[in-house]
Amino acid sequence: MSFPVDKLPHVGTTIFSVMSQLATEHKAINLGQGFPTFPVDSLLIDLVTKAMKDGHNQYAPMPGVPILRQRIAEKLMRRNGVHYDWQSEITITAGASQALFTAIGSLIQKGDEVVLFGPAYDCYAPAIALNGGVVKWVDLHYPDFSLDQTALQAAITSRTKLIILNNPHNPSGKVWKKEELDLIAKVVLENNLFIISDEVYEHIVFDGQVHYSMMEYPELRDRLMLTFSFGKTFHATGWKLGYAISPKDWMTSFRKQHQFNVFTCNSAFQYAIADYMSDLTLYDSISPMYQAKRDLLLSYMHHPLLEMIPTSGTYFQLMRFKGDSSLSDTQLAEEWVANQGVALIPTSVFYNDFSDNRVFRICFAKEDHELIAAAEKLNSLH
Ligand code: PMP
Ligand code: GLN
Q1: Are residues 366 and 335 both part of a single domain?
Q2: Rounded to the nearest whole angstrom, what is the distance from the C-alpha of residue 34 to the centroid of ligand 1?
């Protein structure tokens, strides 16, 4: 007998798992799934060992270890100039993924409409569907991924409850412009909506651009939840730790679900990160490090049919294939992982209608030698 229920009939295995599996099978360089291949800071590793030896091996309090939440509140005050109460407004989660799933689950009810900007990172739409919500897609203009004001306004109805923003943006590498954020803030307020701002790449911004966080709009405070990822910021995606911040009322509702979903997250890593975070200059080297990797990759890419689309943030670079081919981007990615030995992510998967511009996402959070070797393999494409 086959299992009788499929609550996500249009969803398969994520493209990240699919491409990583193919990369392993073909012994290809994996520039697909977004994770660093260089090591985590040895100081942070030592702090984890220390936390375990100090006996932090049992359940942490449900919302997270107090010292870590205090450090986050300090960081929010010193870097963003905003006050969040560590006791009632900050919760440590199993990565940003769980924060997002719980944030959506704590708000969305049957029939609620949620605006997503396409292309969108793949975890939002399934969480909306599982809660009975309906996605209203607003596609960003290709190829500069700018926001179409008219399309945003047209997507809002009396049933709209929430807008989900991702800034800096995966997969495009876009850092949203202040005018675009002003517009989104205005639409949220005028229509009495909520907003979730997924800012996991807040510390990866290039070429002197500025990442404006939605938390810097005081008028949105009552209706805003933000999600962050220690995995992304500290190059340790496998640790699956992140956090959510929001006003107290929303966080109370969030924690009702969090307590039965994961209850709490692993304690030793939380203590270690709290210790590590006491140095607030840590973040300053992240963007230059990734910008150098982006530039290294770009300096090695010189195939006439592979056009690089500018990226301003995240550790992703888009590449357009200009050649003649009857294959879809997904088929091309499958062919290249086997024949060129490089795994990339086809971006049609991030669109509701699978828009295929033959654009691929390259992750450059990799060792320099891998970037150079991958560029050479891509340059040999014919
Ligand atoms: N949001 C975006 C935009 C992402 O790219 C990712 C992947 N890291 C996540 C959320 C999930 O983050 P985490 O690995 O901390 O669950
Ligand atoms: N966020 C990562 C990416 O965009 C993948 C995380 C995952 O595999 N779920 O590649």
Answers
A1: yes
A2: 9
33 lines ligand 2 (CB under 6 A): yes
Q: Whose CA is nearest to atom 6 of ligand 2?
A: 34
Q: Per-residue pLDDT tens for 296-338?
A: 999 999 999 999 999 999 999 999 999 999 999 999 999 999 9
CATH, residue 328: 3.90.1150.10
Cα–ligand 2 centroid distance for 238 (angstroms): 11
Residues 90 and 198 in one domain: yes
Give the chain's length: 382
Number of domains composing the chain: 2
68 token code pair: 């870590």
Q: How far is the CA of 202 from the centre of ligand 1 (A)?
A: 12
Residue 186 lies in a domain: yes
d(CA 56, CA 269): 9
**Chain-centre distance of CA 8, in angstroms?**
21
pTM above 0.90, yes or no: yes
Which DSSP state fits 327? S
In a shared domain, residues 242 and 196: yes
**195 touches 184 (CB < 8 A):** yes
Is residue 287 very low, low, confident or very high in pLDDT (cuts 50, 70, 90)?
very high
Q: Is the CB of 21 within 6 Å of ligand 2?
A: no
Q: Which domain holds residue 179?
A: 56-282
In percent, how much of the chain has pLDDT > 90? 98
pLDDT tens by residue, 92-147:
999 999 999 999 999 999 999 999 999 999 999 999 999 999 999 999 999 999 99
CA 241 to ligand 1: nearest atom:
15
Among left, alpha and beta (phi > 0; psi -120 to 50; other), residue 342 is beta
Which of 262, 282, 302 is the last residue in one of the domains? 282
pLDDT of residue 2: 85
CA–CA separation, 244 vs 239, rounded Å? 16
